[in-house]
């Protein structure tokens, strides 16, 4: 990945490759077709009678895709093949919203919002949390009575900063103490610090912060919270991935059964911060545990980080390590089109897919030393080395969904990452 970040193409390219995406902001359906040979008089493209399929025939072969959005029974769209022979075709069709029809975005499961699984509205006292790898139970049914969403990724860090730097308060400290006790009861703060309390879970986009006494079958190298603090573990509060390259080494939490890393020990609260991508969750006693693909969690992480830092571009690097054999890995990410609905004839299933279109290119380890002077338009994201490699592999593999001419744009590689849908 670091040496050669060009997209990986399928060694057996289809003779007809179709790709379509719904450009929501301009109400346009963009269709691209890549052919193995030049177009001729036998080449033609058409829509199905109900406007839901595109069919293209060329040199005796036919291919079709289900469009990301149906154009309706009365679509008058025409698909004209250029007179000059070409291997690459492009069509743009206007999408009209008709009176009385359901919103086209809602029909296709895309409402433009940022979907994050396992927030407070999804969970209850019956919720159970398990290891995604081996199904060992970390949180039993009934252990948590209240689930609370953290306001934002940076909220807890700001609370910690205020606690350390707030001015002296000459007013009635007894009254303030009573307020702090009330805040602790809500599970949010003690003297303006984030706090954990038995029976209360705090939820971020990618993490669940739990009191240690509520959890089971989780182990850490340290005997207690104070040993961990003395060892210099990270003070990251809202998400484990947003620490900078200058952050101290974190203390991992492991599943006692399969030894998978499932979170980190939070050094401020002493609680267990479990990473959602490493978990399976049963929302009630009658439902089976659910877990989601790493691809969706990584796109969720990129989107949440970009939103919290107010940017569209991120410098993504791996975590610092004491292992001299581990390289500093750097990738520039540009969330070029964060929310589109696409279809591809190369996809495993015919259903349209909600994705983020991402531009990416490799960076060098020397850029990590310049993070403090980065342009305000580029944020930072730190991943474990395993996650960094997975992100790179997913982006490269996704190039196979795109026609060959769409895999590069202005010096960037183009990739797609699936998003969560409702």
TrEMBL record:
Tell me where on the tree of life, at the top rank, the source sits.
Eukaryota
Task: List the signal peptide residues.
Answer: none
**Gene Ontology CC terms:** cytosol; nucleus; ubiquitin ligase complex
Under the heading InterPro entries, the entry gives: UBQ-conj_enz_E2-bd_prot (IPR019193)
Q: Name one GO molecular function term.
A: cyclin binding
Any one GO BP annotation for this protein: protein polyubiquitination
PANTHER family on file: E3 UBIQUITIN-PROTEIN LIGASE E3D, E3 UBIQUITIN-PROTEIN LIGASE E3D FAMILY MEMBER
- By what name is this protein known? Ubiquitin-conjugating enzyme E2C-binding protein
Species this protein is from? Meristemomyces frigidus
Its taxonomic placement starts with: Eukaryota, Fungi, Dikarya, Ascomycota, Pezizomycotina
């Amino acid at each position: 990945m670091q040496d050669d970040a060009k997209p990986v193409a399928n060694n057996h390219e289809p003779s007809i490759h179709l790709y379509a995406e719904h450009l929501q902001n301009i109400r346009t359906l963009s269709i691209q077709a890549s052919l193995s040979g030049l177009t001729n008089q036998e080449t033609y493209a058409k829509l199905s009678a109900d406007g839901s399929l595109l069919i293209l025939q060329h040199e005796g072969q036919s291919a079709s895709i289900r469009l990301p959005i149906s154009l309706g029974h009365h679509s008058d769209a025409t698909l004209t093949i250029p007179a000059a022979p070409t291997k690459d075709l492009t069509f743009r069709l206007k999408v009209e919203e008709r009176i009385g029809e359901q919103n086209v975005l809602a029909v296709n499961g895309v409402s433009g919002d940022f979907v994050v699984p396992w927030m407070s509205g999804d969970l209850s006292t019956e919720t159970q949390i398990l290891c995604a790898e081996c199904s060992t139970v970390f949180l039993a049914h009934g252990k948590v009575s209240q689930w609370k969403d953290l306001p934002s990724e940076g909220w807890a860090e700001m609370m910690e900063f205020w606690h350390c730097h707030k001015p002296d308060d000459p007013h009635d400290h007894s009254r303030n103490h009573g307020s702090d006790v009330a805040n602790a009861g809500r599970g949010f703060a003690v003297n303006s610090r984030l706090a954990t309390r038995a029976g209360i879970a705090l939820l971020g986009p990618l993490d669940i912060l739990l009191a240690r006494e509520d959890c089971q079958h989780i182990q850490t190298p340290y005997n207690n919270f104070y040993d961990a603090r003395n060892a210099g573990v990270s003070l990251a509060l809202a998400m484990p991935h947003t620490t900078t390259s200058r952050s101290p080494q974190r203390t991992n939490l492991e599943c006692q059964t399969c030894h998978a890393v499932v979170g980190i020990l939070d050094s401020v609260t002493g609680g267990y911060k479990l990473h959602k991508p490493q978990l399976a969750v049963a929302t009630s006693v009658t439902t089976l545990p659910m877990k989601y693909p790493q691809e969706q969690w990584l796109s969720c992480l990129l989107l949440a980080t970009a939103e919290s830092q107010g940017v569209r571009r991120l410098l993504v690097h791996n975590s610092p390590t004491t292992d001299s054999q581990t390289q500093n890995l750097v990738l520039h990410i540009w969330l070029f089109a964060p929310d589109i609905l696409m279809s591809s004839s190369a996809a495993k299933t015919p259903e349209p897919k909600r994705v983020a279109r991402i531009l990416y290119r490799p960076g060098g380890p020397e850029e990590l030393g310049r993070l403090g002077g980065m342009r305000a338009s580029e944020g930072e994201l730190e991943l474990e080395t395993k996650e960094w490699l997975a992100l790179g592999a997913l982006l490269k593999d996704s190039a196979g969904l795109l026609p060959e001419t769409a895999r590069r744009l202005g010096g960037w590689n183009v990739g797609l990452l699936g998003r969560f849908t409702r």
